[in-house]
Specification:
It contains 3 helices and 11 strands. It has about 180 residues and is an alpha+beta fold. The strands form 2 sheets. Strands 1, 2, 3, 4, 7, 8, 9, 10 and 11 form a 9-stranded mixed sheet that branches. Strands 5-6 form a two-stranded antiparallel ribbon.
Amino acid sequence: MARTILFNKPFGVLSQFTDARSPSPRPTLSAYIDVPGVYPAGRLDRDSEGLLVLTDDGRLQAQIADPRQKMAKTYLVQVEGTPADADLQPLRDGVMLKDGSTRPAQVRLIAPPDLWERDPPVRFRKSVPDTWLEITIREGRNRQVRRMTAYIGFPTLRLVRSQVGEWSVNSIAPGQWRDA
């Protein structure tokens, strides 16, 4: 029977089991998950946090990671500045990045979510406000959400993937995992 694991990836951890970088390797999934045969279905950047799905089912892994499958991935995104709803419209329409146009995203302004503390904390500047967005995309290019918010002039400060398809990071503490 296939195994699927939901992991709340902490900030600074690579979405892989080994790091070939030397002399000082960075933290990897092997410090948190000791389950043979499971692999990440998609990636989450080292400086992003939240839900990472791992499985030993190659078909499920492809379904989650392949942009042609259009599986929804939802992110809680803290951006620098205070975008108005009109500022977010280009994300809803799709923006042109260096690697092509993005698919339309679902985007909305949200109240600051009740999240765990990040280590290290996000830099705080009295003179520059920040705002939280919920962004759902159906593709997964390298650093896509960060590049999209930068495109509209509101750089990402913190990025937390909260949901992949039907799976959610709710009730999973950072660095912890559970079977789906």
